[in-house]
Design brief:
By secondary structure, the chain is an alpha/beta fold. Helices cover about 35% and strands about 20% of the residues.
Length: about 375
């Protein structure tokens, strides 16, 4: 009974301390500096991650019961070991790392969160290798990471699972993040996954790595890279952190209502398929986005029932001759211009050569 009372006293003391202290949060913008991360469809992962992280921080800094630390606030390279050290020295309550996904295929899309743990699928292990690969850009990486090899699947065996309570808290927060992506933002939900990620393994507090979406998917990359899209992500991540903090500390910090704005995504016009000479079996793809809408003009000099070879000697020394085929014969033209005024000189030249009936027509 005495031992039981001691345990209860300690738990009550911890609860009281939790209610009084500030929630320590570490926000980690993935990659940076010489490590750009994924680069697809005009997007750069390190820039997007930093923008979203700073916006999350701005939203939560309005609350007095938050104490926020950033692993980086500018475009600098921070080794993974230093990111973990920042979080551990800060004695953070939660570590949140923001990234963007990428694939060799343009088809995958959707948002996911990763927590520390053993791999459950080859696909997710490939993601883990990508996020851990930054290790090789660091000096003395073998010394710093003591043989940790992100490209070796056997590494998973040597990775310990986080302490049960910490892992469960990570999973709880990751689930709330996915809930916000799915229900508030209406994004494709790829779920929460356990992965052997060094930066999560080296931090002693609950932590998640968030993959906003695939930069390799053109439509999704445009959403993520838009001002509205980034702010949408920042809002729901901040809201998930608030909910997690209230649950962990048993506090009632007021929540905010995210204002999700759908960005205007300009779709790339698709080439138009047209039929040539009324022959349904003879088609050519014409990119209508490249076709000029400006009017052009040319000088008609003659008409003939038979086709004449387009050489200067057949047209009184004039070059730059073109033709169009009509139902009863062929029309021949001399030169071209963007305005009628520009074609007047061509008319004079044609008349000087003997084509006295030369006149300007619109080039259709």
């Amino acid at each position: 009974m005495k031992k039981f009372l001691v345990i209860v006293t300690i738990l009550l003391s911890m609860l009281s301390e939790a209610q009084d202290r500030k929630f320590k949060l570490v926000l980690d913008a993935g990659h940076g500096g010489k490590d750009p991360g994924a680069q697809k469809n005009g997007c750069i992962e390190k820039e997007i991650a930093l923008d979203v992280v700073l916006q999350v921080g701005q939203l939560l800094e309005k609350y007095p019961d938050f104490n926020i630390k950033y692993t980086r606030k500018t475009d600098v390279f921070i080794p993974l070991k230093d990111r973990a050290k920042i979080a551990n020295d800060f004695e953070a309550n939660l570590f949140v790392s923001v990234h963007c996904n990428s694939s060799t295929s343009p088809n995958p899309s959707g948002s996911m969160t990763l927590v520390m743990g053993l791999s459950r699928s080859n696909l997710n292990f490939e993601i883990a290798k990508t996020e851990n690969a930054v290790i090789f850009q660091e000096d003395d990486y073998k010394k710093n990471y003591k043989g940790f090899d992100p490209n070796n699947p056997s590494t998973q065996i040597g990775l310990k699972i986080l302490q049960e309570e910490t892992l469960l808290q990570s999973i709880a927060f990751a689930s709330e993040v996915q809930n916000q992506f799915r229900n508030t933002m209406q994004r494709k939900d790829l779920g929460m996954h356990q992965q052997p990620l060094w930066v999560l393994d080296a931090t002693v507090m609950p932590g998640v790595l968030i993959e906003l979406g695939f930069l390799s998917n053109l439509k999704e990359s445009k959403y993520i890279n838009s001002k509205e899209g980034r702010h949408n992500f920042a809002q729901v991540i901040a809201l998930a952190i608030l909910k997690y903090k209230n649950q962990l500390f048993e506090t009632n910090t007021p929540l905010f209502e995210p204002k999700i704005v759908t960005p205007v995504i300009v779709e790339e016009p698709k080439p138009e398929l047209v039929t040539i000479k009324d022959d349904p079996n003879y088609n050519v793809v014409v990119d209508t986005t490249k076709v000029s809408t400006e009017k052009k003009y040319k000088v008609q000099i003659s008409f003939s029932a038979k086709k004449i070879e387009l050489i200067p000697s057949n047209f009184k020394g004039l070059s730059n001759i073109t033709l169009t085929e009509e139902a009863t014969g062929y029309k021949y033209y001399y030169g071209a211009g963007s305005t009628k005024e520009a074609c007047k000189k061509l008319v004079a030249e044609a008349k000087a050569k003997g084509y006295t009936s030369a006149f300007i027509v619109e080039d259709k």
